[in-house]
Write a structure and sequence with these properties.
about 200 residues; alpha+beta; seven-stranded antiparallel beta sheet; 6 helices
Amino acid sequence: MPRLHRLPRLRSTGVALAVAASVLALAGCAEPAPAPAEPTAGATGEPGATAAPGESEAPAEEPTPFEIDCAVLLSPDDVYAYNPNLGTAPDYEPAAAGVLGVAEEEGTTCGLLNQTSGALVEFGVATPPEGALEARKNDAALGSKPVPTYGTPPEVEGYFTVSGEHGEAQVFSGPYWIVMDSVDFVEPGDAQVLVAAILENLAAA
């Protein structure tokens, strides 16, 4: 019976070692993985932030101060014609939201005190920059009702709203933003005489 010839185990083990060595050699020659890119600071200064092409931040508009004597906005005769009980409010500080907005725009704010009831009539005039003036108009249009009797658009745009016990009139004419506020303003007509007087006095100033 013929004898079977078998290869020595040492030889097959050697082949396996040679193959393993070749794999390790190939692995050692592989290119290293690229390092992750470092984030770059964009226009905002934050890592990874990039500015859109052609996009730039518009400079903030500075308020345009408007100073005028309260007696020029509403003369003593104007006040007396409206209500003889009204007089200058001592130590007046703006409190109504709209009149505080006039103060923020560096306008003139004034107060009249009803000597009988103690009710305050606040009013103010500002000349905001174009963008701010447009924003004030939009806010008034959204939050108030238009009042055609205050003037004819687009030369004069009038609005009125009631919040709580206070009535507020807003009027826009040319560069001027006029605000009036009082518990005595129950409906738009309650501020009509004072609005007309301020518009006339501003035109003459």
